[in-house]
Amino acid sequence: MRGTRRTRLCLAGVMAASTLFAHPAARAAERTDGHLTDLVNPFIGSQDEGNTFPGATVPFGMVQLSPDTGHMTGYDYTQNRIRGFSLVHLSGVGCRIGGDLPVLPTTGEVTQTDDAQYAAGFSHQDEEASPGYYRVGLSSGIRAELTATERTGVQRYTFPATDKANVLLNAAQSLHKGVSSTVEILDDHTVRTEITGHGFCRDTAPYTVYTITRFSRPFTAYGTWDGPALAPGARTGHGGAYVRFDTTSHRTVEATTALSYVDSGGAATNLRAEGGRSFDAVRERARAAWEARLAGVRVQGGTPTLRRTFYSSLYRSFLAPNLGDDADGRYFGWDRRTHRARGFRYYQNWSLWDTYRTQVQLLALLAPREARDMARSVVAIDEDGGWLPKWGYGPVETNVMSGDPVTPFLTTAYQMGLLRGFEERTYRALRKNADAVPPAEYMGIGREADAEYLAHGFAPYDKDRPLAKMGDSDYHHGGSVTLEYALADAVLAQMARGLGHTDDAARYAARSRNYRNIFDPSTGFFRSRDASGAFTGPADPARGTGFHEGSPWQYQWLVPQDLPGMVALIGGKRAANDRLDTFFAYDKLLADPARTAREVWVHGDPYAYYNAAVYNPMNEPDLIAPYTYLATGQPWKTTDVVHAALTLFTDGPTGMTGNDDLGTMSAWNVLSSIGLFPIQPGYDTWGLSTPVFDRVDLTLDRRYWPSGGLTVTAPGTSAADRYIQGVRADGTPHGRTYLTTGALRSLRSLAFTVGPRPSEWGTSPEAAQPVLR
To answer: Which terminus, N or C, of the chain has the lesser number of Cβ atoms within 10 Å?
Structure first.
């Protein structure tokens, strides 16, 4: 009877999910031709706290030149005044950072130094953006255009005919806190600044950015300001500078701004290396760089909307981490000293708690050379400054978020073969991080609750514990931190075993079972313990305390290293599937997937992380949860949930599910759409679900992926035919619900057969993902 009812419910949801797919008969002509950059909409996520930016950058570029409207992270589509075009933005973060050196063109006399006062109005009808390019018409009659190289932002301003065409460079205002700055006019073409700021979600150590802006023509007048006091003709100041041009006959002014985190000499080096080209030449090079990057994935099938949301997500997945070294290889380390990257490019900006579940794996697949350098950069942080990062911005640790995200980040690189030649160096850093905490004088907290975790098998929850350092505290999130530490231990054990450190492997594997120590049999859920070992906080799992940005309902599935053990704790597969069905509101989901996603799972506030008993597709703790069905004998339900969640991605400004968090949610969309998802982050296991495209061709780097490419097919995939009937790997039947990275390396084709009803595929006990022992 359960099977019959299940089939009826599945069929009831078919038409409700139809917006996700094209009708099979209409799909043949809908191929990905022409410029892939034309399918990208940079405005997606710029409203309702998606916190993306629409401005110009290149893949992983140091510079993200984009308009700021007054929103805390830069640009908000609902606002209609631009305060300036600034150099640095992080895509989809939930706290203010960056926004350094907002530049704005104006006309007339300069009378204001506050960018909120001199901001210019604009209309979306006179605004456009594409990868590497942004343009807007300002209410002043000025047209502003932006493009970028890796380390420079290039502006072109077309003014009305006037002898008072100004460009304001505001060094004292940004998106972060406590800015101090100096500005210097070097000659009639050049302005130099030094800007020091700090802050993110909490306070941080200070960091400095250095800029040099070179204009295409000499200015006719200039001045600086300190606070509200303007000083016409002055060459130095601490607030900002303005320069003036006569555009009565020649109306266009171009400017190139180079950025460095090292020193002013670094900014000059970057300007020499990447400046000197016309705006149009830089724009074309930026477009070509994005075209080459996006061309690594070619899709066929799906609706135009589906393809736009897909390629826009792929675009956002390549926005970070960001290049941190100068053109000569120098970078500013976490020890506050200058270093030189030799044999690799140095990257920075590490939103590790967010990205370790999705974006890390996507970059390892599609950008392995860059991903290798990113891993080397993280190890360099340890070797330069003494410890691995948790959430790093530029050259400082913010200590934002909790747990031990750097371990699955680096063990992913190991499992993907990206650490060849420095595996042991990486392992030494990870071992130190897993077994101790940073010294008091170091800015990072590492595994802050490690002493108690190692002694008692859990991280205690202590909401009243004062912050030892800036940022978050692991003690304030003892329940989720225990789960995060245990996951990190599990994947570190696999790396230790692979490198021959058998004693360490056994020790970490034993610690990976510590998740059991916070399971409360009286509630049937995980629950925080206080320092004495007593369970603490409300017994209601929807209101449990000590779980970072979530509840015990949501964190119960974060045991990918031992799902059979977790399932046994809650009463076996039947009980687990019943609980999963409740968690995903499965009956409602089948009746109306899109409505359930928007009205049951999502509650309007993108920051509503707490006090919920349902799936939250907008936030990281739940990213793996839909794939739990692959281990409980009901893999078709993974497809149902994943495809419903994919309806939340649309091609308008509100088309993001909460903060993108440096590509995290976008990478979830890309991987889930392809049908390959990293279900054991930090290890080498890829879960399978129904692709949303008829065909996906991945071009892969042969140095890391010997096959050179993978073609994923699912002919006829649609809302009506979304259930896997069978899978073939290079023509051989594949009955498991996952593939390993080792299998993917040589695989050339992965073929899904789909149909209108669930099948027996993937339902045997042997089909589930392995336990990490």
So the answer is: N
DSSP string, 702-743: TTT-TT-EEEEE-TT-SSSS-EEEEEEETTEE--SSEEEHHH
What pLDDT, on a 0 to 100 scale, did the predictor assign at position 12? 36
Given CA atoms 612, 613, 616, 619 in this order, what sign does their dihedral have? Answer: positive
The residue out of 517, 548, 579 marking a domain boundary is 548
Mean pLDDT of 502-516: 98
- pLDDT at position 33, please? 54
Q: Structurally, how many domains does the chain consist of?
A: 3
* pLDDT tens for each residue of 219-266: 999 999 999 999 999 999 999 999 999 999 999 999 999 999 999 999
Query: Which residue in 214, 321, 211, 337 sits closest to 266, CA to CA?
Result: 211
> What's the CATH code of the domain at 181?
2.70.98.10
Residue 537 Cα distances to 460, 463, 529, 679, angstroms: 12, 10, 9, 30
Looking at the fold, whether 471 and 572 belong to one and the same domain comes out as: no
Question: Which residue segment(s) compose the domain that 115 sits in?
Answer: 38-292
The set of residues, in sequence order, having a beta carbon less than 8 Å from that of 312 and lying 6+ positions away, is: 39, 40, 41, 42, 44, 651, 655, 666
Q: Let me know whether 62 and 126 are in one domain.
A: yes
Positive or negative, the CA dihedral 24, 29, 33, 38 is: negative
Q: What is the pLDDT of residues 166-185, one digit of tens each?
A: 999 999 999 987 899 999 99
**Geometric angle at alpha carbon 315, from 548 and 71, rounded to 5°:** 55
Q: What is the pTM for the complete model shown?
A: 0.95
**Statement: residue 446 has pLDDT above 50:** yes
Contact 98, 74 (CB under 8 A): yes
How many of the other CB atoms lie within 10 Å of CB of 1? 5
Contacts of 540 (CB under 8 A, 6+ apart): none
Mark whether 615 and 725 lie in a shared domain: yes
* 10 pLDDT tier (thresholds 50, 70, 90): very low
Evaluate whether residue 598 is within a structural domain.
yes
Both 537 and 651 in a single domain? no
With contact defined as beta carbons under 8 Å apart, do 173 and 238 qualify? Answer: no
Tell how far CA 165 is from the center of its chain.
39
Asked whether the predicted pLDDT for residue 16 surpasses 80, the reply is no
Q: What is the mean pLDDT of residues 678-700?
A: 98
In sequence order, what are the residues at sequence separation of 6 or more whose Cβ sits closer than 8 angstroms to the Cβ of residue 531? 452, 460, 462
| Any domain includes 299 | no
| Residue 752 and residue 729 share a domain | yes
Band (pLDDT 50/70/90 cuts) for residue 23 is: very low
Residues 472, 423, single domain; the answer is yes
pLDDT exceeds cutoff 90 at 658? no
The count of residues in the chain is: 773
pLDDT confidence band for 28 (50 / 70 / 90): very low
Q: Is the domain of 519 the same as that of 497?
A: yes
pLDDT in tens, 414-440: 999 999 999 999 999 999 999 999 999
Cα–Cα distance for residue pair 691/695, rounded to 1 Å: 8
Residues 399 and 535 placed together within one structural domain of the fold: yes
Query: How far is residue 59's CA from residue 340's CA, in Å, rounded to a whole number?
Result: 22
Check whether 17 has a pLDDT greater than 80: no
Question: CATH code at 766?
Answer: 3.30.2080.10
Q: Is residue 722 part of a domain?
A: yes
Whether 432 contacts 406, CB under 8 Å: no
- Which of 292, 319, 337 finishes a domain? 292
Angle at 728 between CA 724 and CA 733, to 5 degrees: 100
